[in-house]
Specification:
By secondary structure, this protein is an alpha/beta fold. Helices cover about 40% and strands about 20% of the residues.
Length: about 110
């Protein structure tokens, strides 16, 4: 787990100064962060019956983004979504209303 104040994220391609391969032209690398421990996050998803027969966060995210890739493909959009990393980030220290505040911060002004 990392703290939300540690917000420096670097892509592997940038760190290595690599240019993406031509075969990666339609690839979209996805970073997933979630506020609860993975086990708790999955308990909620399972309780909502939206877990796609998965019990762990990694395989669950792979299935979700595989389905997203398929949806784009059905619309003739050449895109492949790849989960490159997922991690819990604790936002609890911000204040008790961090979820609504984060949502408001993301709204276009």
């Amino acid at each position: 787990m990392i703290d939300a104040t540690d917000y420096s994220i670097y892509s592997d391609a940038l760190a290595a100064q690599d240019t993406p391969a031509e075969s990666d032209a339609g690839a979209i690398d996805v970073l997933v962060v979630y506020p609860q421990p993975a086990e708790e996050q999955m308990e909620t998803i399972i309780r909502w019956n939206r877990n796609w027969a998965q019990t762990e966060i990694g395989p669950f995210l792979n299935v979700i983004f595989e389905q997203t890739t398929n949806i784009y493909g059905a619309s003739s959009i050449d895109a492949t979504f790849r989960v490159v990393h997922s991690q819990q980030i604790d936002y609890a220290h911000i204040d008790p209303d961090w979820q609504p505040d984060l949502s408001l911060a993301q709204l276009p002004q």
